[in-house]
Amino acid sequence: MLVREPLKVKLMTRTGNPVQVTDNGQPLWVIHPAVTKDDRERRRAEIEAELAEVLGAPRSEIALSKIILESRR
User: Fold this and answer.
1) Which among 9, 60, 7, 51 is positioned nearest to 32, based on CA atoms?
2) Could you tell me what percentage of the chain is helix, strand and coil, using 3-state DSSP and rounding each to the nearest 5?
3) What is the pLDDT of residues 14-23, one digit of tens each?
4) In angstroms, rounded to a whole number, what is the distance separating the alpha carbons of residues 9 and 1?
5) In this structure, are residues 21 and 27 in contact, taking their beta carbons and an 8 Å threshold?
6) Phi and psi at residue 26, to the nearest 5°
7) What pTM did the predictor assign?
């Protein structure tokens, strides 16, 4: 999979999970993501701050369904 579909392996490691590389079922390597625990915590804090800002904003008078329908025209 590493050779045939490197993007899948990239996506797996991007989620923060290690990926085990095997050859005919025999383990060869374990690829760990380069993201550290501090990076994940910082990113989580940034996401939480962004969501808190969005939730604190006043509600729109326009329904989301109307916005979507207008954008399709």
Assistant:
1) 9
2) 50, 15, 35
3) 777 788 888 8
4) 7
5) yes
6) -95, 125
7) 0.41
With H, G, I as helix, E, B as strand and everything else as coil, classify residue 73: coil
What are the two backbone dihedrals, phi and then psi, of residue 61, each rounded to the nearest 5 degrees? -80, -20
* Alpha carbons 9 and 26: distance in angstroms, whole number: 18
Question: Which of 32, 17, 18, 22 lies closest to 2, judged by CA?
Answer: 22
The residue assigned the tokens 């991007």 is 14
- Tell me the three state secondary structure of residue 62: coil
Q: Which two tokens stand for residue 20?
A: 């085990």
Q: Please list the residues that pair with 27 across neighbouring strands.
A: 22
In sequence order, the β-bridge partners of residue 23 are 26
Q: Which residue has the tokens 């990926």?
A: 19
